[in-house]
Design goal:
single chain; two-stranded antiparallel sheet; mainly alpha; 266 residues
């Protein structure tokens, strides 16, 4: 039996939509951004090079942490936990799996993906092309329910990125220094943490399942803070995509020697 807009008892309208505005512009724009990021990230993780600038200790977030013997000298801040990887295996496989899982199962990206990539539906009053709808109860969409667990992984990687950011205050003579790369890395850090802390799962973890906030003042304070960030979760989600790309592209360019890092101090 057909479900959705074709279900029995629902008005059968032959037109794709009666809307006369440019409803397709928003899903098209978001779809292009998401597709570009997926292609860019996929290409970069398989490059396995130009992710570490030893002169200034810049490590791109796409390769953090680098914990294989195949990593270039100096980039393994946490040591090497694995032996050498085959050339075809991405050094950032674990990082990509966790962070892609976190973003891919994110409530905002679900909405963006449904509307822009799967047209389910593309916009209000625009019927979706799918004849059947099972929600997130069957594979592969049932995997989206793992979001809260990917959130914990994102917290760990967020702390690792902070450590990388501290390492970026490295001068060319080995002391303290600040360059344009340092600022870009920290701007990206701020946006990543805004995105992570504004997550719906984070809001539930810090304040969910409580019957009386007055008995948990600290958790109520955290819940209030996250609740203020939560309405802008979509903005942080999209902005952090651009800051990640900018940070990776800048570090790649400096590491490859395409241009030198602009130094403000040392």
């Amino acid at each position: 039996m057909a479900t959705g807009v074709s279900a029995p008892g629902r008005a059968q309208i032959g037109q794709k939509t009666l809307r006369t505005d440019r409803w397709w512009l928003a899903p098209l724009r978001i779809g292009v951004i998401l597709a570009f990021f997926v292609v860019y990230a996929t290409v970069r993780i398989f490059m396995n090079k130009w992710y570490w600038d030893d002169a200034h200790h810049y490590l791109t977030p796409l390769y953090s942490p680098c914990i294989s013997d195949s990593c270039v000298p100096g980039s393994s801040h946490l040591g090497t936990w694995f032996g050498s990887f085959p050339r075809w295996l991405p050094l950032s496989l674990i990082t990509f799996a966790v962070l892609a899982g976190f973003r891919g199962t994110c409530y905002y990206y679900r909405k963006a993906g449904y509307r822009s990539l799967f047209f389910a539906p593309a916009a209000c009053a625009v019927p979706e092309p799918h004849k059947n709808y099972t929600g997130e109860t069957k594979f592969p969409l049932v995997v989206l329910n793992l979001h809260r667990y990917f959130f914990y992984g994102a917290l760990v990687f967020g702390l690792l990125n902070v450590y990388d950011g501290v390492q970026a205050f490295h001068g060319e003579d080995g002391g303290f220094g600040i360059g344009l790369g340092t600022l870009i890395i920290w701007i990206n850090l701020v946006m990543l943490w805004f995105y992570t802390l504004s997550c719906h799962a984070c809001r539930h973890i810090v304040g969910g399942r409580l019957k009386n906030f007055s008995k948990h003042p600290l958790r109520y304070r955290y819940w209030t803070f996250v609740s203020k960030l939560n309405p802008k979760h979509g903005t942080f989600a999209m902005t952090s995509l651009f800051t990640v790309i900018l940070t990776d592209a800048y570090i790649m360019s400096v590491s490859a020697g395409w241009f030198s890092d602009l130094r403000f101090f040392n």
